[in-house]
Amino acid sequence: MFTKLITLCAILTTSALAQQPSLKDAFQGLFRVGAAVNQRQFEEKDPRAAGIIGAQFNTISPENVMKWEVIHPRVDAYNFGPADEYVAFGQKYQMFIVGHNLVWHSQVPRWVFQDDKGAPLTRDALLARMKEHITTVVTRYKGKIGGWDVVNEALNEDGTLRKSQWLNIIGEDYLVKAFQYAHEADPNCELYYNDYSIENEAKRKGAVDLIKNLQSAGVKVAAMGLQGHDSLDWPTLQQQEDTIDAFAALGVKIAISEFDVDVLPRAGRGNSADVSATSAGGANPYVNGLPDDIQQALARRYADLFAIFVKHAAVMSRVTFWGVTDGDSWKNDFPVRGRTNYPLLFDRDGKLKPAFHAVIQTARKK
Predict the structure, then answer these.
(1) Quick check: is 258 catalytic?
(2) Which of 111, 128, 223, 286 is at 20 to 30 A from 232, Cα to Cα?
(3) What is the CATH number for 200?
(4) Which domain holds residue 303?
C-alpha cells in the first residue's frame, strides 16, 4: 500500500509539472539546466525525484558515487556499480552527463598517498597512482560522460593553492598533470576546474591565474565551474557579473555547477563549501515552513541571478542545482547539522516554489 501511495504521488507530481514549461525547455538554446542526483534517485527508488529529473533537466552530476573513496576504495579494487547505474540513468533520459570528480583533497582514502608500509609516496609514485586512477575511470566512461570536474577545490580563500597532499607531494604541477591524464584518456571530453567562493576577489584572482597556468601548459579547460553555493545576500550581483566576465575573458565557458541559495543565518560570511568546516549552534528559524516574505525574497534572488546568466548566455554552458528538492539538499546539514533549509526550486513534496516561476520568467525575457 505504501509503495502504491508513493507511485501515485510521483504520477500526480509529474502530471502537475507537465502543465508547466520545464526548465530545460525554457532555457533551450541558452544553456543546459541540471541537478546533482543521489543514489536513490538514479536507481529510481525515489520515483517522485526521478520524475522531476526526467521532466525538468537535461544534464546531471553525481553527488558522491564518482568520488575516489567510493569508486576506488582500495588500492586493488574499483567499485564501478553505482557509477555505472548513474551513467545508465543519464543515458536513459538523454542527459549531458557530468563526472564529479577526479582529484580532490577530500573524500579520498588515506592509502592513496601512502606506500604498502604506510610511508608517504614519492612524487613519481603518486603521479603514477593519479594517472592510473584517472585513466581507468575516464576510459570506462569514454563517450558517455560529456565533461569531468578534473580538479576540485584546489584554492584557499586568499587565492593561494591549498596545502593538500597532492600539492605537498607532487608540487604545483599536479593540476596540469591531472588535466593531461584526463585528456589523454578521453580527448573529446570537456574538462573543468571546479571551486566555491570564486566570486570573492582574492579567490577569483587565484582561479584566473590557475586557469592561465593550465592554458600556458597547453591544457584546454572547457569551463570554469563556479559552484554557486549562494545566500540571499551573497554574492552581490556585481560580484557575479565580474566573475563571469573574468573567465569569459580567458576564453572558457562558465558552468554554475552546484547551485543553491541558503535562506538560513550563517555563522560566517561568504559561501564556503569546505566540507571540513563546522559551525557550532546556529539558528533554525523555519522548522514549520518558510514564511511568505522569505519565500518571495528567495524567488527574487533566483530571478536576479538567472537574469545575469541569461544576459551572459553566450558564455554559459550550464546551471546545475545541487539537489532536486529541498529535502534532498546538503544545506539541511551544512554548516550546522539538522536544520531545515529551503535552497532549491522544488519543495519537500516536489511541488513548484515561487522561485521556480521566477526563474522561468527570466527565460521568457530573453
Answers:
(1) yes
(2) 223
(3) 3.20.20.80
(4) 2-267+282-364
Q: Residue 284: how many CA atoms within 13 Å on its side-chain side?
A: 15
> Which pLDDT score is estimated for 50?
96
Domain-embedded: residue 274: no
Give the pLDDT score at 266.
Answer: 76
Number of domains in the chain: 1
pLDDT value of residue 261: 99
| Tens digits of residue pLDDT in 46-98 | 999 999 999 999 999 999 999 999 999 999 999 999 999 999 999 999 999 99
Does 94 fall in a domain? yes
Cell 614519492, located at residue:
122
Gap between the Cα atoms of 324 and 304, Å rounded: 20
Confidence of residue 24 (pLDDT cuts 50, 70, 90): very high
Q: Is residue 272 part of a domain?
A: no
Distances (CA, A) of 98 to 62, 140, 190, 225, 360: 7, 14, 9, 12, 24
Closest CA to 104 of 151, 161, 173, 136: 151
The continuous run of DSSP H or E covering 356 comes out as: helix 354-364
- Is there a contact between 252 and 281 (Cβ–Cβ < 8 Å)? no
Q: Which amino acid is at 223?
A: A
Distances (CA, A) of 364 to 14, 231, 300: 22, 24, 16
Catalytic site residue from 153, 157, 172, 184: 153
pTM of the model: 0.92
In this structure, are residues 263 and 271 in contact, taking their beta carbons and an 8 Å threshold?
no
Which one from 63, 190, 199, 258 is the annotated catalytic residue? 258
107 secondary structure, DSSP code: S
Residue 356: is its pLDDT beyond 50? yes
Residue 275 falls inside a structural domain? no
